[in-house]
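Forum: Protein Structure Q&A
Topic: Joint prediction for protein chains with partners

I've read a bunch of threads here and the consensus seems to be that you should model interacting components together rather than docking separate models afterwards. I'd like to see that in practice. Below is the full input, 290 residues plus whatever partners are listed. Could one of the regulars post the assembled result?
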Amino acid sequence: MDVEEHLFRREAGRLVAVLTRVFGIQNLALAEDVVQDAFCRALETWKFHGVPANPSAWLMKTAKNRALDVLRRDGTVRRFAPELERELDSEWTLVPAVDEAFAAGLDDAQLRMMFSCIHPRLPEETQVALVLHLLCGFGIDETAAAFLKGRAAMEKRLARAKKTLAASKRLF
Amino acid sequence: MSEFALLYRSTQEAHRESMGSPERAQQSMTKWRAWFKEMSEKGQLKSIGQPLERVGSVVTGKKKTVTDGPYAETKDVIGGFSIIEARDLEQAARIASGCPILELGGCVEVRPVMQLAI
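Posted by a regular:
Agreed with the consensus. Here's the joint model:
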């Protein structure tokens, strides 16, 4: 079975939204890292074993396992989503809380992420660029092309916008 | 026909770079799948092989010291292997030259499999 067109583009946005919900908006970079980890694992295993029957579920599960590793490892040194704080703190509730966050409607996570991206302190064009990049799975090159800008300029702008986003108190 | 092992080597950075954006991830995956398919259709692929985790342990010396491995992250790591069939090393290397890892900052090591038959 071949990999469906735009699979990674679609899943990138969904995964980053749900991971941000668990990790908290201040850990946006970590969420992006975990997504990339999941993509790397997908490349390694799918190229040999073939694409699984439900690639979206596979990516989601891989990202979830990786998120649990991170939460266990960094739980004492890093702060995660304020609304899940209590659940993420204990091994008793950690797994169910993350399960629930992953199951609790991707649409909701994506919508909240979108509202967070249209941060009032960001210029409108940057808001749109951020939505394309984080939620629609546009890479930096593609986002730059969409605004007829150079890669370096767009990279800088997105990095700054992500900093603004990460500094906001919580996800919308 | 002889058998050859292809060892896919890349650094952690090159590997992450190859999945650096959803578009690139899509391209990398498509290229790898297409390459294996092509070899398989030409009857060159004896065994697709297995992917390998990029971390593990190294056991060394008479004292059998166990350390985290494979090696420092700067070095390239074997991320998987396949077994192909080819007339000779030259043809095996030609087949390996189609490997997508070459466009993604990695390399392929081609090694003849030793046979008992002489």
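Chain A has a mean pLDDT of 87.
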